[in-house]
What we know:
Blueprint lengths: L1 H29 L29 H13 L12 H8 L3 H10 L15 H12 L1
Helix pairs in contact: 2-5, 4-5
Amino acid sequence: MTVTKLMTSMMVLALSAVVSVATASTIEERIAPVGAVCVQGTECAAAGKAAAASSGPRSGSDVFNTYCAACHGTGAMGAPKAGDKGAWKDRLAKGFNKTLANAINGLNLMPPKGTCGDCSDEEIGNAIKHMSN
């Protein structure tokens, strides 16, 4: 009977060692980093395909059609409609920089930069020029 107990204990220990190794391996895979940081100008194997470089600021038309048209195309929530020279004249009377600052920081129901969180200040300006002409 003691031999049976000894053999059973050894089998339990052996199985727990196998399970521990498998579990540790599985855990390592689950918590492995999903990305890596690469510094521009240095080689980085983890980078994979390079992101497409921007060819410059987006046009006012592109920004308007993608981010602004929902409100400024319809006048929703009091937004001045694109092409409504009278509505834009009143806003631009304060100066283009003031109008741009309002668009960047948000005004009334418009959130900062409208719905274009990744737009540069120049692109927001391009959209204003597009809508006010």
